[in-house]
């Protein structure tokens, strides 16, 4: 410890800062830690086609349709539980499947996304901000549109 203190005392402040960042990164598993808000901001930036800093229902619906198309591997125009993967729990999948055929059509998938949008839009302005995407419904919505 004494040697570390002597080395630190001789280093310029900017080098000490860089060393601290490197050590911190190594101690945190080698991954730079980002704030939870950055995930919501990244989603908004990626999906916000009108660049207003929020997500509206049209932007979210288009994203959901694109994700649905990407997920359906068998080209049967439906998603089964396996294709939905970890986006939906078994309970959520069953609740989103009103005809109980063990698949989701694009319309059923989009209806779920729209329902979650409305739940996350607590101020009722028709737009989701980062803080609304941090809610339970907002986080569930993000799983379905990314």
Architecture overview:
The chain has 146 residues and is mainly α. The protein folds into two domains: 1-32; 36-145, EF-hand (Recoverin, domain 1, Orthogonal Bundle), CATH 1.10.238. The protein has nine helices and four strands. It has helices at residues 2-10, 13-27, 36-47, 57-71, 81-84, 90-95, 106-120, 130-133, 136-145; strands spanning 55-56, 78-80, 103-105, 127-128. The strands form two sheets. A two-stranded antiparallel sheet has the order 1-4. Helix 4 packs antiparallel against helix 7 (106-120) and helix 7 runs antiparallel to helix 9 (136-145). It is globular. The termini are far apart. The model is unreliable at 16-34 (pLDDT under 50).
**Class from secondary-structure proportions:** mainly alpha
In the predicted model, the low-confidence regions spanning at least 5 consecutive residues are: 16-34
- Beta-strand proportion: 5-15%
Major sheet size, sense and barrel closure:
2 strands, antiparallel
Q: How do the strands line up in the largest sheet?
A: 1-4
Key features of this structure:
Recoverin, domain 1, 146 residues, two-stranded antiparallel sheet, mainly alpha, single chain, two-stranded antiparallel ribbon
Write the layout of secondary structure elements.
Elements: H1 2-10, H2 13-27, H3 36-47, E1 55-56, H4 57-71, E2 78-80, H5 81-84, H6 90-95, E3 103-105, H7 106-120, E4 127-128, H8 130-133, H9 136-145
Antiparallel strand pairs: 1-4, 2-3
Summarize this entry quickly:
With 146 residues, the chain is mainly α. Helices cover 62% and strands 7% of the residues. The strands form 2 sheets. Strands 1-4 form a two-stranded antiparallel ribbon. Strands 2-3 form a two-stranded antiparallel sheet.
